[in-house]
């Protein structure tokens, strides 16, 4: 009897023994620590995927810029972005994917005592530049966004003033610019420049120029310092040829194909065609890029554009061109062409651009775009010789706006920014929504339920998409 | 050891028994009805501990004094008391017809007198769940048990959602725990989140559906926390305790054979009613207004098919809607079937008319067969039972079938008077081919049939096109004028899709236990049991070359196992008026789960070969996950009884879990119950039994595995760069255990000769400190974060009633009814968060937990309403070609549009017995609750439903323009549109602050007093998704269903005579025969996507299936 009791109690004791149960909870399939480069590379791809996407759930700006319109399902062409939570998806993609990975990478780099000091500094600078770039995309979309309290343990980060964020971004660029030099040690993880910090240095200067030019109209009294920053950037050395482009060359097989290929080819869908806005501008200027940007041109080589926002039969309109159906098509973060337009704008404003005239930089911008899409120099020259295209400082906004808008094809965010900055070319009223494009994108519904107080206070309490972002003062 | 024990027993016997002059009494106990001897009957001398038990011949022998009273009791029989008057005493027992001495199975398989239990337990006999069988036996419980809400998903072999007393966990598992013979069995639902949120996939069922209804002896449903405290955390959702059939001691062998054959057909009242007036397309923008002299209103494609230099009239086959040109049998046009050279209709024109066979003709007859053999036997030393069951079913979709084979063994052997060893083991093999695709996905034919379709298609012509060519000749080919005219655009030929893009899956499973019982002495028993449930499963999905979606092969391998070791000491002792019953036990549980999913990349090299090595590009690294959970628990229970009418129970359990931080991984939770059998204290003839019960219980719960530390996700390398990303859900190293507190009171009574009985319960459960991945602003860098937060409360009333209006020798009528009303409230969430999104589904709808609302709020764009609650309408924009105009609903804010929880649900079963005939009918009711229909949301826009065509109240075609300038019917009048009533018209005026001013609103007429019409002229009409309001597509989910009907004839024993057959029953059964009431005219309100927390979303819903069948049971 007693023995049995003893045996039973022993068994009970065994059960209560807490042999190290905790080890059962370890995740044997996913690492708790990774090389920082894996995170930087991933953030680069995520950022590029967001910018290059034309998926209606993710990025609607190729529609908002009215390069394209939709054929059958015209909701996004009519600026219905809340239905698919495009604004919420943008936050998720840029904060939780891109910025978060870069933050983790910074933490790992900082803690890595084995890393040579120079490489450490370079890598941190590159992470910061990518974060700055990402934040400027967010500001351009929404205006005020969470910044100083973002990416911390604070679950309700406040929204910071857009102009103040821009100023801080510029300061961060200057710091990074001062650090970058030589080999950054990232090697293949540096998907943009393959480890070359000097290339990143030019990128930093170019990005500073971009933010400076963009905030120039806002800085009407010169107190913001746009001119000084722009001139300093130009003096430090911005992109001088397309070889300097910051771009991501996609791979030929999924999952790392250009998102355009996923949506235009892989999906088998026929959702987009040229808009009448695009057709109007390109046809008017006999643009030689028409046959590259689109297919299904008419017998005169003109685009047939669908009325923006109205249903348009795919077969009877000009469709996104064959060139876009290449899975390896590179996507640009910044290009020499874009920098040339920025420099032209700077020169036109009377800033010291070191070398060249507004006209020369303007032409460089057009030429770079023509070359990018394989248009011959002859055709490009003929195009620029037209009086409607040739530089004329008296209509600088119209020319810069129209030509940059045309050259920002498949860079929806930048094409949309261009229209907002220059107010050219003229946008059409969307047929069903009966309105012009929004001036910004309202915040997603999740922010209202999760970060209510702060989002409600953003932009002085107004979240209308007819409000303008801070730099869009005209 | 042995000697001492015997001496001890002898001492007790001496102490208690020598007060009277004892003599040896022997006898036989037999069944009063059949005369068969009953083995294992307990024979006790009343008022003493002197006891014996009958052998397999029903014989017993006991020493008892003269005039001693012997109590004979056996499970399922009414106890009998007899006074000893000689050396022999034969007794016959009757099947128990009342609840007085009912014994129920409770936690850990402990059998207890029902009267002593202070919480709600409801039992369902095995016959009840196997009578009218469903592939998923859980569905057979629907409408039968108060407090248990069961929802079937509607696909062959799909999962059943089983929620007891409401949703208690905000993001965790809310499904009941299934325990078979003491083995907690896996009920994993492994459907992908894409599947559960309606984005497509297959419902692979829930793992507990492997249980074979033919092997079930009884099902005991433990509903409250007090009932389940001993099972630990997982049982907070209630336990469905299944006891399988065991062998019984008898002469020779018992053989039973059961065979069933069911035929299932789709229920047309749960499917689309199509319009048949208008052709393919979205509206007037395909071609010129006039093609070849015919006014087509730009709704047809112009293309020179025959090469005569003149454009011909063609359907816009590349589009998947029915907002095209009005049908005209005199118009000849080219359609999808004119495109393909393989078809005899190639380049032939046809009349412009609706398809001769709409998608109702797509559904096939489902056949289910079930064959089962069981053999049992035994002697006084042991018993055994073996059984084999073969189950085959086909779905109503083409090329869908599921097979299941169950083999089980159970046996027990008495190794000595004290030591019994027993075991149960089952092997289950399940395989399915062609599961029915769900959600918003090409593999679900309902995505097209209910949302995106051309009513001009003759579905049988699609079948013939596939069958004769084996190719994907789709009605939705890009069509005339396109770069690839013959390729499918949005939809494959549905037959191609079913025969070429199909899934297959299989699961091999073993579950069993080994148990020893040792009787330490006459009041103390020891039980040790080791049990295991383990399976491996494979799921394969194929996308064929030539379909809309890229060719692909995906396979998932999964292995799941759970082992439990239980040691329990049980004491039973009486002290005068007091009885004591208690347990002290331990439980060691280990779970291991591992998954691996691999897929081809970028297409297949060789069509038709579904192998990872046939990938066009190098396959991505397979995705792997694996986790372990270990829980060690110690528990104790003590029950004290006083004079058979007052019982008090207390339990306590201490768990240590691997999923919690090591310094905080141990947690304790207690329960206390009281049961008062007040009928023992009163002498009212009408009252046969009355019991009041009350309890309080707490149940603790641990965290999900691997929620304490972040780990990075490794991605597919980009070129030579490896990628890693931070998780979207942040771990939390400081998690604490969750707890659920519950109280319950209940009243059970049997009245009027046990002909009327009821059982009422009220319960209140509050679950706190929930561990959940809370949605946080993504500007924090995470999308979710594990936190301890949130309170959810469930309060409810359950009632079940048994009534026997007529009971005669030949005829009996029984009514069983049950009713459940659960009120769920999400009390709070994480740090004042206003919502917790359970799922974002399409249509801008989210299913949410919101404080102040019941769990599962359907949230989305609401109607703006006036002060009286009428939806507000306002003037629509008139855009190109006369479309638009009229009025449309004004979209309001996002708001709660409905809730997934019913107000109440219940069942009403009437059963009749007349001599050897029995008949029963079960009506299953679920009242209240809502669902969002993505089907009508899109389908109204694409113009396939009957409601989008026909005439309006003014007698004009609804699809005409609301203006006289008519673009709809050449030369016809306008004044079309849908008449809006019950609405408030806003003239567009605004107040000084720019806010809408509704003070001038008029009801049902505009400012001029004219009636209101909404534009229905093309796909952006006022009801569909484009211009409509999501709230319009939230439907009442109430239903009244005729769930089960059965008619059985038992052939009388005298007819069977010397055939050797001991029993023969023949039944006619029907299941889901009719929906007696529902709100949505086009679907089954119960239809869903999958079991789990995301309910209330119909996306490509399957129609309900009516089943009728025959079943034969034979006993030898």
What's the gist of this structure?
The complex is a heterodimer of chains A (474) and B (1116). Chain A is mainly α and 474 residues long.
What does this molecule look like?
The complex is a heterodimer of chains A (474) and B (1116). Helix content of chain A is 48%, strand content 4%. Chain A contains 18 helices and 8 strands. In chain A, the strands form 4 sheets. Chain A has a two-stranded antiparallel sheet. In chain A, strands 2-3 form a two-stranded antiparallel ribbon. In chain A, strands 4-8 form a two-stranded antiparallel ribbon. Chain B has 1116 residues and is mainly beta. At the A-B interface, helix 1, helix 2, helix 4, strand 2 and helix 17 of A face helix 1, strand 30, strand 32, strand 33 and strand 36 of B.
Order of helical and strand elements of chain A: HHHEHHEEHHHEHEHHEEEHHHHHHH
Oligomer: heterodimer
Tally of helical segments of chain A: 18
Radius of gyration of chain B: 33 Å
- The gross shape of chain B turns out to be elongated
How many beta-strand runs of chain A? Answer: 8
Give the helix level of chain B as a range of percent: under 10%
The share of residues in helices of chain A is 40-55%
SS elements, strand count of chain B: 66
Poorly predicted regions of chain A are 1-8
Could you describe the largest sheet of chain B, including whether it forms a barrel? 22 strands, antiparallel, barrel
Overall pLDDT metric of chain B: 87
Main sheet: strand order of chain A: 1-5
Distance between the termini of chain B: 45 Å
Report the β-strand fraction of chain A as a percent range: under 5%
Determine the structural class of chain A based on helices, strands and strand pairing: mainly alpha
Major β-sheet of chain A, in short?
2 strands, antiparallel
Structural class, judged by helices and strands of chain B?
A: mainly beta
The first-to-last residue Cα distance of chain A is 96 Å
């Amino acid at each position: 009897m007693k023995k049995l009791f003893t045996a039973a109690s022993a068994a009970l004791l065994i059960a209560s023994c807490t042999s190290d149960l905790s080890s059962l909870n370890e995740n044997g399939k996913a690492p708790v620590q990774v090389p920082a480069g894996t995170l930087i590379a991933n953030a680069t791809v995520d950022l590029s995927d967001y910018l290059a996407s034309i998926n209606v759930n993710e990025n609607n700006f190729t529609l908002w810029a009215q390069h394209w319109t939709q054929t059958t399902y015209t909701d996004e062409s009519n600026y219905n972005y809340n239905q698919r939570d495009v604004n919420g998806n943008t936050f998720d993609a840029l904060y939780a994917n891109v910025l978060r990975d870069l933050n983790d990478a910074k933490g790992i780099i900082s803690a890595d005592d084995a890393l040579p000091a120079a490489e450490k500094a370079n890598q941190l600078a590159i992470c910061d530049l990518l974060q700055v770039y990402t934040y400027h995309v967010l500001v351009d979309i929404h205006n005020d966004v969470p910044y100083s309290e973002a990416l911390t343990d604070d679950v309700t980060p406040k929204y910071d003033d857009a102009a103040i964020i821009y100023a801080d971004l510029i300061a961060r660029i200057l710091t990074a610019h001062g650090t970058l030099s030589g080999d950054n040690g990232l090697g293949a993880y540096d998907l943009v420049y393959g480890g070359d910090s000097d290339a990143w240095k030019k990128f930093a200067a170019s990005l500073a120029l971009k933010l400076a030019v963009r905030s120039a109209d806002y800085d009407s009294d010169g107190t913001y310092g746009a001119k000084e920053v722009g001139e300093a950037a130009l003096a430090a050395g911005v992109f001088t040829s397309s070889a300097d482009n910051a771009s991501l060359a996609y791979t030929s097989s999924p999952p790392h194909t250009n998102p355009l290929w996923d949506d235009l080819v892989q999906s088998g869908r026929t959702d987009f065609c040229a808009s009448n806005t695009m057709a109007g501008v390109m046809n008017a200027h006999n643009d030689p890029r028409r046959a590259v940007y689109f297919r299904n041109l008419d017998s005169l080589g003109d685009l047939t554009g669908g009325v923006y926002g109205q249903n348009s039969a795919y077969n009877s309109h000009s469709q996104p061109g064959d060139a876009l159906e290449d899975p390896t098509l590179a996507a640009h973060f910044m290009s020499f062409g874009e920098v040339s337009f920025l420099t032209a704008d700077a020169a036109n404003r009377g800033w010291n651009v070191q070398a060249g005239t507004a006209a020369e930089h303007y032409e460089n911008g057009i030429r770079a775009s023509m070359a990018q899409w394989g248009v011959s120099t002859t055709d490009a020259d003929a195009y620029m010789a037209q009086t409607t295209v040739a530089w004329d400082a008296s209509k600088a906004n119209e020319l810069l706006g129209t030509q940059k808008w045309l050259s920002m094809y498949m860079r929806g965010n930048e094409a949309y920014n261009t229209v907002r900055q220059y107010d050219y070319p003229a946008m059409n009223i969307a047929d069903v929504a009966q309105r012009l494009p929004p001036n910004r994108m309202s915040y997603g519904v999740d922010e209202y339920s999760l970060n209510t107080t702060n989002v409600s206070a953003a932009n002085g309490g107004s979240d209308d998409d007819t409000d303008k972002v801070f730099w869009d003062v005209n | 050891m042995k000697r001492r024990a015997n001496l001890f027993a002898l001492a007790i016997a001496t102490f208690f028994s020598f007060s009277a002059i004892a003599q040896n009494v022997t006898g036989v106990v037999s069944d009063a009805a059949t005369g068969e001897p009953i083995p294992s009957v307990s024979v006790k001398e009343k008022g003493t501990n002197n006891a014996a038990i009958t052998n397999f011949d029903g014989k017993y022998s006991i020493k008892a004094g003269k005039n001693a009273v012997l109590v004979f009791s056996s499970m399922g029989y009414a106890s009998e008391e007899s006074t000893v008057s000689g050396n022999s005493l034969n007794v016959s027992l009757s099947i128990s017809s009342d609840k007085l001495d009912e014994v129920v199975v409770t936690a850990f398989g402990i059998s207890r007198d029902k009267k002593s239990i202070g919480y709600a337990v409801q039992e369902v006999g095995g016959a009840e769940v196997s009578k009218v069988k469903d592939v998923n036996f859980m569905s057979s419980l629907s409408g039968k048990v108060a407090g248990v809400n069961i929802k079937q998903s509607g696909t062959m072999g799909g999962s059943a959602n089983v929620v007891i007393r409401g949703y208690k966990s905000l993001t965790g598992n809310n499904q009941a725990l299934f325990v078979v013979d003491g083995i907690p069995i896996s009920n994993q639902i492994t459907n992908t989140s894409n599947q559960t949120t309606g984005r497509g996939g297959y419902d692979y069922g829930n793992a507990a559906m492997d249980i074979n209804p033919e092997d079930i002896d009884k099902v005991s449903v433990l509903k409250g926390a007090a009932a389940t405290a001993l099972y630990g955390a997982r049982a907070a959702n209630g336990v469905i305790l299944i006891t399988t059939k065991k062998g019984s001691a008898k002469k020779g062998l018992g053989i039973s054979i059961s065979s069933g054959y069911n035929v299932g057909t789709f229920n047309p009242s749960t499917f689309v009613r199509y319009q048949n007036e208008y052709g393919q397309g979205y509206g007037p923008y395909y071609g010129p207004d006039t093609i070849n002299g015919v006014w087509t209103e730009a709704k047809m494609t112009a293309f020179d098919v025959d090469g005569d230099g003149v454009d011909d009239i063609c359907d816009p086959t590349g589009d998947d809607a029915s907002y095209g040109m009005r049908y005209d049998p005199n118009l000849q046009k080219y359609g999808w079937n004119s495109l393909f050279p393989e078809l005899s209709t190639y380049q032939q024109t046809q009349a412009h008319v609706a398809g001769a066979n709409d998608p109702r003709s797509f559904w096939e007859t489902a056949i289910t067969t079930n064959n089962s053999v069981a053999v049992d036997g035994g002697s006084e030393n042991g018993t055994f039972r073996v059984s084999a069951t073969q189950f085959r079913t086909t779905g109503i979709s083409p090329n869908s079938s599921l097979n299941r084979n169950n083999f089980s063994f159970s046996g027990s052997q008495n190794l000595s008077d004290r030591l019994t060893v027993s075991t149960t083991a089952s092997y289950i093999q399940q395989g399915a081919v062609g599961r029915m695709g769900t959600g918003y996905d090409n593999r679900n034919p309902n995505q097209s049939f209910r949302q995106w379709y051309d009513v001009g298609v003759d579905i049988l012509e699609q079948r013939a096109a596939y069958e004769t060519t084996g190719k994907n000749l789709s009605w939705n080919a890009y069509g005339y004028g396109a770069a690839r005219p013959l390729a499918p655009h949005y939809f494959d030929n549905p037959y191609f899709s079913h025969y070429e893009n199909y899934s297959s899956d299989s699961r091999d499973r073993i579950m069993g236990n080994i148990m020893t019982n040792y009787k330490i002495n006459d009041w103390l028993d020891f039980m040790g049991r080791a049990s295991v449930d383990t399976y491996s499963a494979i799921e394969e999905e194929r996308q064929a070359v030539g379909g809309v979606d890229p060719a692909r092969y995906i396979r998932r391998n999964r292995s799941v196992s759970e082992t439990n070791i239980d040691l329990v000491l049980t004491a039973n002792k009486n002290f005068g008026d007091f009885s004591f019953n208690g347990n002290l036990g331990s439980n060691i549980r280990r779970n291991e789960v591992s998954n691996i999913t691999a897929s081809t990349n970028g297409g297949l090299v060789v069509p038709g070969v579904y192998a990872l090595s046939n990938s066009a590009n190098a396959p991505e690294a397979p995705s792997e996950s694996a986790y372990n959970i270990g829980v060690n628990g110690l528990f104790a229970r003590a029950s004290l009884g006083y004079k058979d009418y007052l019982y008090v129970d207390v339990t306590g359990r201490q768990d240590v879990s691997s999923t919690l931080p090591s310094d905080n991984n141990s947690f304790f939770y207690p329960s206390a119950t009281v049961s008062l059998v007040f009928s023992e204290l009163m002498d009212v003839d009408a009252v046969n039994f009355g019991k009041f019960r009350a309890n309080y219980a707490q149940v603790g719960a641990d965290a999900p595995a691997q929620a304490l530390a972040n780990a990075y996700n490794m991605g597919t390398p980009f070129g030579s760069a490896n990628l890693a990303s931070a998780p979207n859900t942040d771990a939390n190293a400081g998690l604490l255990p969750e707890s659920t507190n519950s109280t319950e009171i209940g009243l059970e009574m049997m009245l009027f000769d046990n002909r009327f009985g009821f059982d009422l319960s009220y319960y209140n459960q509050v679950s706190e400190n929930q561990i959940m991945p809370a949605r946080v602003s993504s500007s924090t860098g995470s999308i979710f974060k594990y936190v301890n937060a949130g309170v959810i409360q469930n309060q409810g009333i359950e009632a079940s009633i048994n009534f026997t209006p007529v009971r005669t020798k030949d005829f009996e009528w029984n009514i069983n009814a049950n009713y459940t009303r659960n009120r769920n409230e999400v009390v709070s969430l994480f740090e004042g968060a206003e919502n917790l999104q359970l799922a974002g589904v399409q249509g801008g709808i989210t299913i949410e937990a919101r404080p102040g609302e019941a769990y599962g709020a359907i949230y989305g764009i609401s109607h703006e309403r006036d002060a009286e609650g009428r939806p507000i309408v306002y003037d629509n924009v008139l855009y190109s070609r006369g479309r638009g105009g009229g009025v449309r609903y004004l979209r309001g804010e996002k708001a709660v549009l409905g809730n997934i929880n019913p107000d109440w649900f219940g069942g009403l079963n009437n059963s009749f017995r007349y001599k050897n005939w029995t008949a029963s009918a079960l009506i299953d009711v679920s009242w209240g609750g809502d669902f969002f229909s993505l089907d009508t949301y899109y389908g109204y826009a694409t113009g396939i439903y009957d409601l989008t065509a026909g005439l309006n109240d003014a007698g004009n075609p609804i699809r005409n323009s609301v203006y006289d300038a008519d673009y709809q019917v050449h030369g016809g009048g306008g004044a079309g549109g849908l008449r809006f009533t019950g609405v408030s018209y806003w003239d567009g005026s605004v107040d000084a602050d720019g806010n809408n001013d509704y003070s001038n609103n008029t009801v049902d007429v505009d400012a001029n007093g004219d009636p209101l019409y909404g534009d229905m002229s093309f796909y952006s009409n006022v009801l569909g998704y484009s211009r409509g309001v999501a709230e319009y597509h939230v439907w009442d989910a109430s239903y009244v269903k005729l769930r089960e009907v059965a008619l059985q004839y038992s052939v009388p024993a005298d007819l069977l005579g010397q055939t050797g057959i001991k029993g023969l029953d023949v039944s006619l059964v029907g299941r889901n025969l009719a929906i007696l009431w529902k709100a949505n005219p086009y679907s089954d309100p119960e239809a869903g996507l999958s079991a789990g927390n995301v309910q209330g979303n119909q996306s490509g819903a399957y129609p309900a299936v009516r089943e009728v069948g025959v079943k034969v049971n034979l006993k030898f």
